[in-house]
Design goal:
Double Stranded RNA Binding Domain, three-stranded antiparallel sheet, mainly alpha, 2 domains, Arc Repressor Mutant, elongated, about 10% strand, 4 helices
């Protein structure tokens, strides 16, 4: 197990979302479940997030809870294999041909579009 200072130095992803209804900002560390805070200004929100992260880590250490380490983009190759029904393969091939792009590009477009919709609905 790392020390508190070692965990604090790790590059945890910080998500900052403006609160358009009430003003201010909400901040979360997705890799630290439940580590969420807010602030009236961006500077306050970031400072509160650092404090919340410290408190979250201390509580996890005291409770002997496993603390996840941040994931790194280098951990992902950008490739994965996917088995799909032949009928779907045919449809994707036909649609990509109609659009004048490779099936790889077409599938990437569909995944990115769907992921954007997912992100919008889960904010």
């Amino acid at each position: 197990m790392k020390t508190l200072n070692e965990y604090l130095k790790l590059p945890y992803k910080m998500e900052i979302v403006p609160d358009y209804e009430e003003g201010g900002y909400a901040v979360a560390y997705p890799e630290l479940p439940g580590c969420i805070t807010c602030g009236d200004t961006l500077e306050d929100a970031i400072q509160n997030a650092e404090d919340a992260k410290r408190e979250w880590l201390m509580a996890a250490m005291e409770g002997k809870i496993i603390i996840p380490e941040p994931s790194h983009i280098e951990d992902y190759s950008g490739q994965f294999k996917l088995r799909i029904p032949k009928s779907l393969h045919k449809q994707l091939a036909e649609h990509s041909k109609k659009e004048g792009i490779s099936m790889n590009q077409y599938c990437l477009y569909l995944l990115a579009q769907n992921d954007a919709l997912y992100q919008m609905h889960n904010q």
